[in-house]
Give the backbone structure.
Amino acid sequence: MSGTFSVGRLFGVNIRVHFSWVFIFALIAWSLASSWLPGRYPGWSGGQYWVVGIVGSAMLFVCVLIHEMSHSLEAIRRGLSVRSITLFFLGGFSQIDGESRTASEEFWVSVVGPIASLALASIFGLLYLNFRSSPGQIAALLQYLMIVNFVVGVFNLIPAFPLDGGRVLRALVWRATRSEQRATRVTSLTGSVLGFGLIAVGIFFVFTNDLITGIWLVFIGWFIQSTASSARQSSAERRIATGRTVREAMDEGFHAVTPGTSVQSLLEDHAAKDFQRAYLVMLGDTLHGIVTLTDAGRAPVSQRSEKWVSEVMTRAPDLVTLSPEDPLEEGLRLLAQRNIRQLVVMESEKPVGMLTRAGVVRVMEVAQLLPTTERSE
Ligand SMILES: [Zn+2]
């Protein structure tokens, strides 16, 4: 996710915060100080409301981090590697490398998060019972943390992907049907239903004068629906890719340019004619690198005729390459994981093709039109 900054490491996991969280932090502190607390604990000074509001918002941040940390620690315990935890406007997510290998792995890594939130709710609840008799700032804080952790725990148990409950359901369907892809299809559909449902409820709220709750629900709904549909998409891609090699999806009709081509000439003489997004930079049979329209765009307009593509290209040693016989799934994984648009396919040290997402989509389209025997899942 772009727009994030690192705030430190915990148990070897990089903790990152997306800038949207800063906004949410302020929004929560403000809504606590201006309405939630005064409604329940009247008679404090304005400063007291703000202090408790800010502390409450910060504690919520810590609780969400504990929820995410529980996912990460369970994943690490099962031998998966966790790159980072990112906190953003909807809470947090753990970036775990690789998909779960088994249904039980998926089940446990997912279920510990809501368990952690509900455990926190119980702890704050028990503490709150002790302080309730003397209503003050501490009681207010404990009451808020009890409620909010309970809500986080229960909301995440809704069986709709990408929520934790959806992953738990996915693990259960996976185990029952022995098909990971069928499980993804089912739970991403429940995710889309929940997403659209939340958007509808949100729009209703907007028209009944609860603007903030409404916008909030639309946002959450949109996020859930788009995550669910992209999970469905990538699961379909993987199904098509299963059993195929990179050779079957790569583009062999690519054009190349020499390192001494100017950026201006790349755009005018090549890109404007054959509309490729990326060009191999070759001298004879040797690959020097790859230059994309994004690279070309980085050269200032006034310098385009003096800049050579070799100055803006990604150099060959830094390129991720594939062999034509590599599984297509591996190519898809690399494209997604590194967030790049094309991979160079090399055979005996020579480039023989390029693998692009668009190329894979074409293979998918053709595959769907051909009457195939059901591919094994
Ligand atoms: Zn979770």
Observations:
- Residues 262 and 306 are 6 Å apart (CA to CA).
- The mean pLDDT is 85.
